Amino acid sequence: MDLATKNPFWGPQTSYLNFCEEDYVITRYVAEFINTLSSLVYIVLGIHGLLRIIKNGQATVGRSLPFFGLMGVGICSGGYHMTLKYHTQMSDELSMHLLTTPLVHRLLTFQKSEQYTRLMGIILFIEFTVVMIAHMVLDEFLLHAVAFGSGVLLIVICTMRLIPRQIPDAVIRKSVKSVTHFGVFSFLFGYMVWLIDEFACRHLTSIRHSIGLPLAFLFELHGWWHVFTAIGGYIAVVVIDMLTAGEVHEDPTGQFAWPLPLVARTMGSSVSKKED
Questions:
Q1: Which residues are involved in binding Zn(2+) (predicted)?
Q2: How far apart are CA 103 and CA 66, in angstroms?
Q3: Is 275 annotated as a binding residue?
Q4: Binding site annotation covers 22?
Q5: Buried b (16+ CB within 10 A) or exposed e, 37-49
Q6: Is 222 marked as binding a ligand?
Q7: 144 marked as part of a ligand binding site
Q8: Please, what are the domains in the chain?
Q9: Which of 70, 100, 196, 214 would staple 151 via disulfide (CB 3.0–4.6 Å)?
Q10: Are the CB atoms for 100 and 148 separated by under 8 Å?
Q11: Per residue in 210-255, pLDDT tens?
Q12: pLDDT tens digits for 16-65?
């Protein structure tokens, strides 16, 4: 462990952000082992969603792109936490917009004219370019954060409005809403543990040192941010894909990755009991 810390494979850190996980503790080849490992959740869920539409013969470029975006977040996040370099940090933050921008475009242009769809694509491309240049060239973080947060908020609002329009059956609508609500909760919970990891790092490090491995992994909270935001992102991609494709004629929650079908049934049962 000492050798790993003293002789990191990737050399000195050049990224301007570092997280609470201690660097190169597990191996000299991976700076933040848990943060890197947890990034794989994005890739696994992205592959699951892509295989679903391939199996159903629906893997067009437009429908496949968001799933590749989800996988891209995992690849870029893993690369960043593995190396702690400036260029991998930029790729990590760029990938967040590469996921949200196609989803925003798909929601805003659903059932719109071809001319409107093309215009909205140009507007979002310009917005994406401005944000990335400001962030990567001018080192401006606030615009990146506001643009990403606004994109996520817009996705949530548009999706919740689209569900009753696209799903007339009350039972199916309730099931899809349950999964969607869980996706929103997952994202918010992930953000909460991200904040705790940011502001309580000294205490978390002390706890990890006290309890030792492997239980210490449970207190690597930035890794849990990856897990919960991956779940939230996956749910958003799948729900939007199903809604805009007009395919929700029966309960689709059984096609989600485990344990989301169980979550949908549990939350749906809870809502039914309250209504009774």
A1: 81, 222, 226
A2: 7
A3: no
A4: no
A5: bbbbbbbebbbbb
A6: yes
A7: no
A8: 33-257 (1.20.1070)
A9: 100
A10: yes
A11: 998 888 899 999 999 999 999 999 999 999 999 998 767 778 878 8
A12: 888 899 999 889 999 999 999 999 999 999 999 999 999 988 888 889 99
